[in-house]
Design goal:
This protein has two domains: 11-121, Rossmann fold; 139-291, Rossmann fold (3-Layer(aba) Sandwich), CATH 3.40.50.261. 35% of the residues lie in helices and 22% in strands. It contains nine helices and 14 strands. β12, α7 (215-226) and β13 (232-237) form a beta-alpha-beta unit. α3 runs parallel beside α4 (103-115) and α7 runs parallel beside α8 (261-270). The longest helix has 13 residues, at 19-31.
């Protein structure tokens, strides 16, 4: 079992002829992901790493009705149209790698997806990987191994670091989801956490958060109300950030007492989540929790 990416995932790459699109298409194929088509307007008829290219999403779907997932490498100024095209064509999961999408466009994308009961991962996400099954994203596959820990994260680099240590500890990951670091995202911590709770392959969940916004506080509220059904551990980046300083991601904005490292730690611990001050402490704690 896995979430979001499994044996039935069939992928369309939007922006496949661009440098990043072509590069990561090959890496996804090499990892075993079933990439069946690509789209770049005006480039229909080409082939990239053996993947046929079409001028539109509808053309690709017509030839490959099995497509159920899209990954978007389209430049920020064109991403709104690209994502809406995928949603309106009936694609169920759209992974938006692109960063720098205007906030207004992000709001339109996310609201449209929710109204259609479709899933947006991102924007500004490294994607999703279910180790040993497939990846729809840009994460370095060597950091991951098949296992029992579900990871949901706002940070790309920390995801790779913590995943590598969990792999080296022999536990591996069931699935890893980057929700994106922007203020507006499709899937949030709560939705992915629910998926992991319902996934039989996931024995424990790791939350990788960061200062700014209230995503972690909202997750803590959800867990407090629903109870901790599986061991849940967290690392929050930004503990040493100076007060009043805007840091890193566009989502790292602190206001009205929410968004600080301390407020997130307190909320999560109050909900029964184990919060750690250093990323390398996570794998040690998981060994104790899972293996006893």
């Amino acid at each position: 079992m896995a979430i979001l990416v499994d044996e039935g995932t069939r992928v369309l790459v939007q922006g496949i002829t661009g440098r990043q699109g072509a590069f990561h298409t090959k890496l996804m194929i090499d990892y075993g992901t079933k990439v069946v088509a690509g789209v770049t307007p005006g480039k229909g008829g080409l082939s990239i790493h053996g993947v046929p290219v079409y001028n539109s999403v509808l053309s690709a779907i017509h030839k490959h009705p099995e497509i159920n997932t899209s990954i978007v490498f389209v430049p920020a100024q064109y991403s709104l149209d690209a994502v809406l095209e995928a949603l309106e064509a009936g694609i169920e999961v759209v992974v938006v790698i692109t960063e720098g999408i205007p906030l207004r466009d992000e709001l339109i994308i996310v609201n449209k997806a929710r109204s259609m009961d479709r899933i947006i991962v991102g924007p500004n996400t490294p994607g999703v990987i279910s180790p040993g099954i497939g990846k729809v994203g840009i994460m370095p596959s060597q950091a991951f191994s098949r296992g029992v820990v579900g990871i949901v994260s706002r940070s790309g680099t920390l995801t790779y670091e913590i995943s590598m240590e969990i792999s080296e500890a022999g536990l591996g990951q069931s699935s890893v989801v980057g929700i994106g670091g922007d203020p507006v995202t499709g899937l949030d911590f709560v939705e992915v956490y629910e998926m992991f709770i319902n996934d039989p392959a996931t024995k424990a969940v790791v939350i990788i958060g960061e200062i700014g916004g209230d995503a972690e506080e909202r997750l803590a509220d959800y867990i407090k109300r629903s109870g901790v059904e599986k061991p849940t551990l967290a690392y929050i980046a930004g503990m040493t950030a100076p007060p009043g300083k805007r840091m890193g991601h566009a989502g790292a904005i602190i206001s009205m007492g929410l968004g600080t490292w301390e407020s997130k730690r307190e909320a999560l611990e109050d909900a029964g989540v184990m919060v750690f001050k250093a990323p390398w402490e996570i794998s040690r704690a998981l060994l104790n929790v899972i293996q006893g």
